[in-house]
Amino acid sequence: MSSYLIKGVSVLGAAPTDLLIRDGVVAETGADLAADGATVLDAAGLVALPGLVDLHTHLREPGREDAETVESGSRAAALGGYTAVCAMANTSPVADTAGVVEQVWRLGREAGLVDVQPIGAVTVGLAGERLAELGAMADSAARVRIFSDDGHCVADPRLMRRALEYVKAFDGIIAQHAEEPRLTEGAQMHEGAVSTRLGLTGWPAVAEEAIIARDVLLAEHVGSRLHVCHVSTAGSVEVLRQAKARGVRVTAEVTPHHLLLTDVRAETYDPVYKVNPPLRTDDDVTALRAALADGVIDIVATDHAPHAVEDKECEWAYARPGMLGLETALSITLEVLGPRWDLIAERMSRTPARIAGLESHGLDPAPGVPANLTLVDPAAQRRIEPGELASLSRNTPYAGMTLPGRVVATFLRGEPTVLDGKAVK
Ligand code: DOR
Ligand code: ZN
């Protein structure tokens, strides 16, 4: 195993120090370290964070390897500063059996760029009718602990209750895509003034809020863990605030795009802005930012949703929902929260690692800790060029925007996956 001596780095914004990485762990920290044979990296001006952890990534393999593969998505993740991602189950075939989750897990190991933790489907084929083999997926080599029909809501309350009861035995989590389908039939964008003006069918905020309200009550009744995917409205924040105050075991995520963009983007009719749940209003963005800062929303998760050109560059109504996220999430969070490194580490690394049970991730760089970390240049400004992204897809809503911060290096168990801002393999 190689060793690296990182000189003059600021760990989470603290005074510069040296970090010696050896045998997969942070071996030593302190001033003026020396180490024979170690590769020396000058990290003056850089900030070290625990490697980022994404609880919500679509890798598209198996089934849509033209849009993303486990390997290409892992590379995008490493370049974004991630050391672990949770792969969503809406692949083709769906990850609803031990066989498919083991395949994704094995592909992740072979790529070796981030730890890929598969998420299993809650229902067979994401059809919302019968529970999938949750126990078999939990017992598989992939050791699945999070289950989600993301892209679809587990709308049937009896099925949702059963799923929560089932995973309680192994402290599993149901991650809900909160969307009451009867309220969003034909929906194209957020229901509000802009949808009225454009004449597009609206996706009302209450369709999300009603499901979250129901599910926190179910989780409270069962005593199980609920995670709410991509929270997008101010009303959802209030439902979560009340549930958390009562001690319900609920966690929640927000995406970078819901923290930055609003429904006025739909006026361009550019399907790059079509996403589910849809971009909301300024008031929603303000509430989501406040909730992320105060902890009612626990984490930032990307909902990285790569789509092939033909699925995105078409009429708005026919375009698939979703946007890329892995390679820009840290920059957007930095833009939204400012250089509050401890808070960024909490929301993008420690808490998602804790929720997912990824014990070797989400740990601040300190002696003896697994060397899963990322080095960021906070002073860099970066213009987003879709052609330069590692993802196989191009559907970034940030094309041409200049964003703060650049990932300079990422280490997975002491081995660099990114150096000098470039993927190592
Ligand atoms: O915009 C979205 N895209 N939302 C989802 O829930 C699913 C995702 C996808 O798979 O493309
Ligand atoms: Zn998703």
TrEMBL record:
Ligand binding (Zn(2+) 2): D150, H177, H230
Pfam families: DHOase
Active-site residues, record numbering mapped to chain: D303
Positions of Zn(2+) 1 binding: H56, H58, D150, D303
UniProt: substrate binding residues: H58, L59, R60, N90, N276, H307, P321, G322
Gene3D superfamilies the UniProt entry points to: Metal-dependent hydrolases, Urease, subunit C, domain 1
Domain Dihydroorotase catalytic: 47-234
GO biological process: 'de novo' UMP biosynthetic process; purine nucleobase catabolic process
Zinc keyword on record: yes
Keywords carried by this UniProt record: Hydrolase, Metal-binding, Pyrimidine biosynthesis, Zinc
Enzymatic reactions: (S)-dihydroorotate + H2O = N-carbamoyl-L-aspartate + H(+)
Cofactor: Zn(2+)
GO CC terms in record: cytoplasm
Top-level taxon of origin: Bacteria
MF term (GO), any: dihydroorotase activity
Cofactor binding: number and manner: Binds 2 Zn(2+) ions per subunit.
EC number: 3.5.2.3
Pathway involvement of the protein, from the record: Pyrimidine metabolism; UMP biosynthesis via de novo pathway; (S)-dihydroorotate from bicarbonate: step 3/3
Functional description taken from the UniProt entry: Catalyzes the reversible cyclization of carbamoyl aspartate to dihydroorotate.
Matching HAMAP family: PyrC_classI_B (MF_00220_B)
Similarity section: Belongs to the metallo-dependent hydrolases superfamily. DHOase family. Class I DHOase subfamily.
Protein name: Dihydroorotase
Protein's organism: Micromonospora musae
Gene: pyrC
